[in-house]
Amino acid sequence: MGNLSPVSSAVIAVDIGGTHLRAALVAADGAVIGEVRRVRADFSRLDAAATGDAVVAVIVDRLRQAIAPWLDQAARIGIGFPGYISNGVVMGSPNIPALHEVALAERLADALHRPVVVENDANCAALGEWRFGAGEQAVSLLHLTLGTGVGSGLIRRGAIFSGDQGMALEMGHLRVDWRPDARRCGCGGLGCLEQYASATAVARAYGHGVEAAEVHARACDGDGRAKELFAQAGAALGGAIAQAVKLLDLRAVTISGGMIGAWDYLAPALERAMEANLLPPQQGKVTVRASTLHDHAGLLGAAALVM
User: Fold this and answer.
1) Which of 13, 27, 129 is nearest to 77 (CA)?
2) How many CB atoms are closer than 10 A to CB 291?
3) What is the pLDDT of residue 93?
4) Whole-angstrom Cα distance, residue 219 to residue 263?
5) How far apart are the C-alpha atoms of 278 and 142, rounded to whole Å?
6) Which pick of 12, 82, 89, 136 has the fewest CB atoms within 10 Å?
7) In this structure, are 66 and 162 located in the same domain?
8) Which domain holds residue 103?
9) What's the pLDDT score for residue 1?
10) Residue 92 and residue 95: Cα distance in Å, rounded?
């Protein structure tokens, strides 16, 4: 392994997505001390017949590109990955179907000659926000990520709660619209939260081929339709959060992702819908905050996995 530098308490953090992976060297206090490196992976373009071994080979290759400068400076690697993960085993991944019951943490540790911990990316974002961000000091924390879909993770009394098979807190697939003509979700269900509250959903509903960021810009310019779509997304989020609070009896919620730029349009409707759907003793006692870590929540949570 060689001699470690004076920053040997630092760890390597990696956030893997469907098209890119990001990596950084992170100090024990959460400071990013190595430049965040972004490497194209684009797993979604792999041949439909690609095997799990082929996917792992691509991950290893891209990881080596990203983290090579730091391998002599950190002894441990934490990774956030999009999938259902139990004890480092990817039970399944909606965006990378070739990975089914693959011991990814073990495979990567063997290839990189370092201890590796792999956890669901939304759980990592929750851990990062709880450890270093807007959810710091909360007894328990529900964290949602609003991007292409809606991800979520739960920190329960200091530990990630991921359920029996790594599939707990799939709030993006919590049904919020029970009408017969509710929107069809990629999971096969109807009326899922991410079909109403994700950046993708807002952009699709607005139309004209624009992205959510452009919808936000138009809202800022006074576009009533754009403002209404963000309010609708906020209301869907607030109702879903209220259901989670009734199940889990928690008091702190944080939200990150691309939609946070439109927080001023999301938050009022979110708060109203949440309060209207909470039990009376819970009303006025749940705080919902925008992330203070922005797009670093997942990376810092991955770092916290191995600190």
Assistant:
1) 13
2) 24
3) 84
4) 12
5) 15
6) 136
7) no
8) 11-124+297-305
9) 37
10) 9
SS3 31: coil
pTM (predicted TM-score): 0.89
Q: pLDDT tens digits, residue range 82-111?
A: 888 999 999 988 778 788 899 999 999 999
**Residues 143, 111 share a domain:** no
Are 99 and 55 contacting, i.e. CB atoms less than 8 angstroms apart? yes
Residue 256: phi and psi, rounded to 5, are -130, 180
Q: What is the pLDDT of residues 27-78, one digit of tens each?
A: 989 999 988 888 887 776 666 667 888 889 999 999 999 999 898 889 899 9
Cβ distance 133 to 124 under 8 Å? no
* Per-position b or e across 254-265, b if 16+ CB within 10 A of its CB: bbbbbbbbbbeb
241 with 253: CB under 8 angstroms?
A: yes
**Average pLDDT estimate for 136-155:** 92
CATH of the domain at 108: 3.30.420.40
The residue assigned the tokens 């509903």 is 205
